[in-house]
Design goal:
globular; 306 residues; 2 domains; alpha/beta; 18% strand
Amino acid sequence: MTEKIAILCSDLHLSHTPPLARSGEPDWYKAMARPLRELNDLVSDIQSPLVLCGGDVFDRWNCPPKLITFAMQTLPDNFNSVMGQHDLPYHSWEQRESSAFWTLEEADIVDLASRWGKYKRVAWCGFQWGEEIEDNNSGWGDAITVCIAHQYVWWGNAKESVIATEKNSLSYSLEKLQGYDVALFGDNHKGFLETRIPGVIFNAGTFMRRHSDEKSYKPMVGLLYEDGTVKPYYLDTSEDVFDSSEEVHEAEQVLLNLDSFLDGLQKLGETGLDFRRAVDAAMDREQVSRVVRRVILEAMEKSDEA
């Protein structure tokens, strides 16, 4: 039987506080540790352990030291990842060294997958968020070649109506991927595996269920075998405390709509402070629900941290 040679994953979105749909967890750090422990168990079953990640290791680039320490303690060895937009300060590659991701890179916990790397029987080329995929003209002999890209692609039903356009359909990337044995994508949280075209396309999807519309979703990682095949491995979610109520869904929509606007508040100075007071007064006047109020205030706090 062919041997496993790597684990493929993406979009861990490690965060200091739980997302709204998981706010009922008694201990969010223990909740995050469960799938990471399962990932480590899978890695320990490989003779030459290797993990390739499609980006967004963190949910925010400027997360607190406690979360960075947690990542240092729980991420598996030989963890190689590209940087997603959530890993990059203000989505800027030029400011990458200011990020929590880069702290892990400097501490040798994570290896940045930038252009070509090789370990044992696997060679990979990494493309960060916003970077164009390049053809594979390298020639690695018998090695399985993997393209790792944090790029939103969809295929079949794995799409979201607002985000998915014809230009980010997988079919638009196939020509660039023809020289690779396997392509690992991150960013689209709805995972899929496509094997009916030349090579194998694996979009890992979200590592943990984080949003109310993911109640029925089964997070997965990919098991890469020495013959170039990839098989999905579905993670155990039986202990998840999950809330998909209408109230949580409403609050998530509020956060989605406010996020980009509130990200600019830190640039307003005293005007920003006045705005905060006005928002607080407006929430009192409109009798905004507890959950929505929490979303707005947390979004403001994040804009202060940025």
